[in-house]
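I have been asked to look over a protein record a colleague put together. Alongside the sequence sits a line of tokens, each denoting a local backbone shape. Please read both lines and tell me whether the tokens look consistent with the sequence. Take the sequence as given and treat only the tokens as open to question. I have pasted the whole thing underneath without changing anything:
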Amino acid sequence: MTVVIFGRPFAPYIEKMKPPKEIAQEIALRPRFKIELEYPKEQALSWFAEAKEHTDAYIVHCVDDHVFIKIPKEKQHFWSPQLDIEIISFEDNHCTLHGLFGPKPSVWTLFMFIHFLVATLFIGMGIWVYTQISLGAPYAVQLTVMALLVLLWFVLYFAGRMGKATGHDEMLELYQFMKGVLRN
């Protein structure tokens, strides 16, 4: 796939790219990275604004000091990542780019809601088990449900890992696109 940036073709070579160590993290479901830039943030933001006008291979949204890069709707799947970038300026002619890869906000919200629900049920079951023990009543069913909730937590974690793995190539494409815009 060839992407046109600033009127010039840009072909991403994902297999040759060496992503930052943070992208290859084993545990983080939402990898983060930080890049120090040797030019003012206004220049970087203008490059992203110009890239928005010159490419249809990615969806680029610029809001204040934030840039959001997404895969186009027709190519997205449930686990498609997006790249959220914040550019912060501390000195003249220097700025820091903070990047965060993650699923679409609706997917992340659903995922966190399910985690919260499982945690609430686990705490509720723990209280019920304690009550049953205090009353001298049987509590095997509640302990079984607690064990199943722990199992569900592991299933959710590995589902998130599988989703991250599914979107890994797209994550590298987004990262390389960002680097191409910044190399302008």
Summary: The mean pLDDT is 83.
